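Appendix C: a fully annotated inverse folding record. The material below is reproduced so that readers can follow the format used throughout the book. The structure is listed first as tokens, followed by the designed sequence.
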């Protein structure tokens, strides 16, 4: 099987670098184009990144000598790829425009950006949870006037530490949710060298994050109607989002009440047995078990659990009854793997497996 040719838009930034690292020796995809800002265009990828390589593994040899293209030269980039991952650093309006421009060249766009998360006919996907939302792609292609081109986005990285846990319990009707997220500095595209102020520090504010954390799960829970995704009315979610001195891994402390209160054993069974299309199709990046429940009182921990199943699974622990709500628990997800580039790669694998992405 020949590999699909992939372009990475915004390939020199932190998320772009993560795409490059994840796609090295991928069984289905091969990076053939890296595009970035005009100041990086014309340089080799190694020259463009310079000393800003932030991954723990070395830069793959296969990409070092790729000549970086200008991301704004949409036609030139598109003709050399089957689809693109988008991690561009632009304003929201600029991102919307450039992603639609790529889609209109009949190039599917799998986006790590937030710009199109509320565009009614653009799926916002956690592949295990709401793959049925993919059916709106046909309506989107009609709107864009394309045969193959479309946009699909991933949700905010922080909601993946608790939304899968709630979704797996849909049969019990979660109705009220209080979640506090403790978010790693890599979620801001930084490390401790870039951001020494975070050492020995906690910042109780992340701009725009609480609104995303309260509303985006409702879109995941939503339904498709008349070629659009209609967000769910519930559960009612309120959040606080706090930046903590952790490199990778977003943690959530969650309180939840249900329409039909399950017992603890029913909850753990629903979590550990939950699976979606990625598991059924055995996609290359899919964890064998999506949700892991940990019995120890002091788990999950970022250092011990964020890399479970290559950082693509969710870890949950400390489930217990609460005196105000029905239950409380702690969730953890790897924000730059499951929450960002890894989740986008898994989405692309699902799209290929279902025939939405193919060789041009």
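Designed amino acids, in order:
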């Amino acid at each position: 099987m020949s590999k699909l040719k992939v372009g990475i838009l915004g390939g020199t930034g932190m998320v772009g670098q993560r795409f490059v690292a994840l796609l090295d020796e991928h069984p289905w995809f091969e990076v053939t184009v890296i595009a970035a800002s005009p100041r990086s265009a014309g340089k080799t990828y190694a020259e463009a990144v310079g000393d800003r390589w932030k991954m723990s593994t070395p830069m793959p040899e296969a990409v070092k000598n790729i000549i970086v293209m200008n991301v704004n030269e949409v036609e030139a980039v598109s003709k050399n790829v089957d689809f693109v991952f988008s991690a561009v650093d632009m304003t929201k309006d600029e991102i919307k425009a450039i992603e639609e421009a790529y889609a209109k060249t009949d190039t599917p766009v799998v986006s790590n950006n937030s710009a199109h998360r509320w565009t009614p006919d653009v799926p916002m996907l956690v592949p295990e949870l709401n793959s049925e939302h993919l059916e709106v792609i046909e309506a989107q292609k009609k709107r864009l006037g394309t045969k193959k081109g479309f946009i699909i986005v991933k949700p905010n990285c922080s909601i993946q530490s608790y939304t899968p846990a709630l979704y797996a319990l849909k049969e019990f009707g979660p109705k009220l949710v209080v979640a506090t997220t403790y978010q790693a500095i890599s979620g801001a595209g930084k490390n401790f060298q870039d951001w020494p102020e975070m050492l020995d520090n906690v910042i109780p504010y992340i701009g725009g994050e609480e609104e995303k954390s309260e509303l985006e799960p409702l879109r995941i829970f939503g339904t498709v109607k008349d070629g659009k995704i209609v967000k769910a009315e519930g559960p009612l979610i309120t959040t606080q989002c706090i930046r903590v001195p952790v490199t990778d891994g977003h943690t959530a402390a969650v309180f939840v009440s249900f329409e039909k209160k399950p017992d603890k054993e029913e909850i753990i069974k629903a979590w550990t047995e939950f699976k979606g299309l990625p598991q059924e199709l055995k996609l290359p990046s899919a964890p064998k078990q999506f949700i892991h429940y940990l019995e120890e009182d002091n788990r999950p921990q970022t250092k011990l659990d964020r890399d479970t199943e290559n950082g693509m699974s969710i870890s949950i622990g400390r489930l217990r009854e609460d005196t105000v709500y029905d239950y409380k628990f702690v969730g953890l997800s790897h924000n730059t793997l499951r929450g960002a580039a890894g989740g986008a790669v898994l989405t692309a694998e699902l799209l290929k497996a279902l025939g939405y992405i193919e060789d041009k």
